[in-house]
Structure formats: C-alpha cells, structure tokens
Amino acid sequence: MHEIFQYVDRNRERFLGELFALIKQPSISAQNVGVAECAGLLKSQMEAIGIPARVLATAGHPVVFGEVRAPDAKRSILIYGHYDVQPPDPLDLWHTPPFEPTIKDGRIWGRGTGDNKGQFFAHLKAVEAILKTAGKLPVNVKFLFEGEEEISSRSLRAFIEANRALLAADYAFCSDGPMLPNHQPTILFGVRGILHVEVSLKGANKDVHSGNLGVFVPAPAWRLVHFLNTLKDPQGRILIKGFADAVVPPSALEKETLRKIPFDPVVLTGLGLPPAPVEAGAAYFERLMFQPTVNICGLTSGYQGSGSKTIVPHRASAKIDMRLVVNQDPDDIFAKFAAHAKTHGFDDLQIERQGGFYPSRTNLDHPLGGAAARAVRQGFGKEPILQPCMGGSDPDYYFTHVLGIPRVNVPYAPHDENNHAPNESIMVEGFFHGIKTTAALLHEVAAL
Ligand SMILES: [Zn+2]
Questions:
Q1: C-alpha 309 – ligand 1 centre gap (Å)
Q2: Which of 195, 212, 339, 416 has the fewest CB atoms within 10 Å distance of its CB?
C-alpha cells in the first residue's frame, strides 16, 4: 500500500481541485437544478481516471455507472454513492457560498462536501491511485452513483431490478453519513427502514364561524387528535396491533458490539432542553438501532397566524414517519396502520402512503466487515467502531435483498458535517484518509 499512499500524498492539491469542480456544480434533485450537468461532469471525471462510465436513464434523474475490470480478479465490488445534494437554503446562514468550496479550519466547506460528493469522490481517487501505481485493480470495481438519494431514491429500486446483470457483484460498499463524535471511524452494517404516511380528515367544505354554525359542523382537528391518541400511550408504547411482531431482539454479538460504541452525551446537548436523565450507552444504542418508532413529523389545521381567528377548521392533517427495524416490512406495517384506523372507527380518515425505505442489515461477523476494519486501520490509522445499524435510512435493502449481496458503510465525513443544513463540511484529512481506506479495502476484499 505504501506506493499507493505516496501517490495520494503527492497529488493532494490536484485531488482537492477536482473535488472542488464537482462541488461547484449544483445538483439539487428536489428542484432539478444542475442534476443532468453534474451527471455529465461526473462521467467525464471518471473517464479521466480511466474508468469507462455511462450516464444511464431512470424514471427520474440519471444514474452514473462505471466499471473497471481487473484482468485476473475473482471478486467484484459494487460501490454506491449519490451525486445529488439537498437545497442550500437558508442561504443567509452560510459563512461561505454553498457552491464555492472553501478550505478553512482544516475542513472543506460547501454543499455536498460531506453528503455525499466528498465521500464518494474518495473512492474514485482510490481507484486512480491504484491504477496509476500498480497498473491494475485487485478486484473488479463497479460504481453506481444515483441522482435521487435526497428525494428518497425513488427510481433506484426499479433501476437495480432492471439491471441485475450489470450490477452483479460479491460485495457492496459505500461511504455516507458521519463518523462518531470523537472522530473515530465507524463501520455501519445496516439501516433502519422508514415509512411515511400522511393522514387527513375533512369536515365541511369550508371553515365556519366557531360561535355560530360551529356547534353543528364536524371538527376534523379534534377528530385527528383523537386518532393520533390511539397510536401511542403516554409512556410512548406503540399501540398499533402487530406493529412489533417481526422485531428481532439483538443477538449476543450485537449486544456486545453495542456496549463498545462510545456514548457521547454531546449528541443531546445544545438543544435548549433542561438537563434530563440520559439513557446511557448500550440502552440508547439499542433503542436507536433495534427498536421502531412512530413519530408525528407534521401537524396542520386551521389558523396559525398571529392573534386568533374564531373558526372551526374544515380540514386537519398530520404527517407521520415510522422508523422500522429488521424484519419489519413497510407493506405489512402500512396494512396494519390502515387496519388500526378502521378498528378504532376512523373509516373517514384519508391515509396516503408516501414512500420510504426497507430496514436492512448485514451480519456483523460477515468477512466484508473484517476487510473493512483492516482497511480503516490502514487508511485512518485508527481502530474502527462497529455499529450493527444506523438510526437513519438509506437504500441498503436494494443491495442486501434485491441484489442479495452484503454491504457495509464506512463514513468519511465528521459527526458535525451539517449535512442537509447550512455550512456543510468534510475534514480535509477525512477525505484523504478515506481515499487510503478505499484503496486498502479493494485489496482486502480481493484477499477474501
Ligand atoms: Zn443527504
């Protein structure tokens, strides 16, 4: 690895310049700003490294696919990333312009630095470093970069199902999300799933005066409150029948792993809350990774402006997200949610399903995890922490179940990367440690 790492060190300035070019190109999937241009730029950056690449159409924004075959390799690895970014608003809170990458305090600042351009670009530079020093890769490498991750990867599943042969591989790998608060690298073996639902109720065909007709018309806001009240009890227990039937408690190995994750109460400070008893370490992580949630993420009815308005609002709605864990199935959970509404007499409730992700996990003792741990030790010079799952969600399931291959995620961005928020960043050294980690990983995978 020595020669490869030296190549990385010799080319730092150029690598940063190329990453900057990618960050300068906006690619806001939610607003369709610059996405096609970014796909074209990424393709040309891959070709410049010697990675044959194609921009492939999907039902939405395109996928950029690239593949480098290794002459006598037995293994293939599929590397996933996403080139789309979140909208940069609110612009006035940025210290530097979001699409003008800037280095300050050891970080690269800009939209997409951490999520996800700065992370997946490290994989491309790792391939370059190996090709330019050894002349060939130790494994076949396929790249799948999507342009819709920030809008729930809506076309990715259909794309993967239609391109199984193209994407066939032994392992999948990605770098997304943050490292731990103590800057320790982490290896993530799975994700929680998520199901988004919007519920709404209608009364009269318009708001009415609450002092006059108000006594005769139905009150959707009250009815919505009564419905929401049936979902959870005051202790936070979820009351949807059968909701947790498929939940599997952590295994002995998983419990052991949870105990080793450093718990930093910093994650709960700075929220403007009175000091609360914090569930320590393993208990917190067990809830985060192994238990589902039902959350009201939006609640709307009636007049919300200043002062008061004496109406009975004619409509009320709520957005609900449910974080799901292995082996919960979003289809089954949606059916149970709808049945719950019926059983409790809410036949008039409109329930709209709004997408989401399946939960997914790769076994902690899968050899891919060992390969990733050895790669992290070489690339970062630090011991990685293993995490059975992350609290959030991503398309992991499409790899582990649709393609049927294991996947691990080794984040290269810092814990405070501010993804989706103003002043997003990645550490300069995190980017270079990432390049070295990916280069080492390709060799470790070849040896499995
Ligand atoms: Zn994101």
A1: 39
A2: 212
Distances (CA, A) of 8 to 127, 135, 377, 401, 415: 11, 15, 17, 35, 24
Instruction: Measure the CA–CA gap between 346 and 209, rounded to whole angstroms.
Output: 25
Centre of ligand 1 to C-alpha 115, Å, is: 5
Q: How far is the CA of 162 from the centre of ligand 1 (A)?
A: 25
Q: Which of 348-352, 390-394, 405-409 has the lowest mean pLDDT?
A: 390-394
* Cβ-count burial 61-76 (b if 16+ within 10 Å, e if not): bbbbbbbbebeebebb
For residues 354 and 196, the answer to whether their CB atoms sit within 8 Å is yes
CA distances from 168 to 9, 144, 171, 185, 442 (A): 33, 11, 9, 28, 17
Instruction: Give SS3 for 381.
Output: coil
Q: What is the value of pTM for the model shown?
A: 0.91
**From CA 89, how far away is CA 422, in angstroms rounded?**
7
Distance from residue 420's CA to the centre of ligand 1 (Å): 6
Cα 368-156-433 angle, rounded to 5 deg: 40
Sheet containing 107-109: give its strands across.
102-104, 107-109, 425-427
Q: pLDDT tens for residues 146-172?
A: 999 999 899 999 999 999 999 999 999
CA of 409 to the centre of ligand 1 (A): 14
Closest C-alpha to 438, from 49, 104, 48, 24: 49
Give the 3-state secondary structure of residue 316.
strand
Residue 278 predicted with pLDDT over 90: no
Which residues have CB under 8 Å from 121's CB, separation 6+? 18, 19, 22, 431
**Residue 217 confidence (pLDDT) above 60:** yes
Angstrom distances, CA of residue 190 to CA of 52, 179, 361: 30, 15, 4
Q: What is the mean pLDDT of residues 413-417?
A: 92
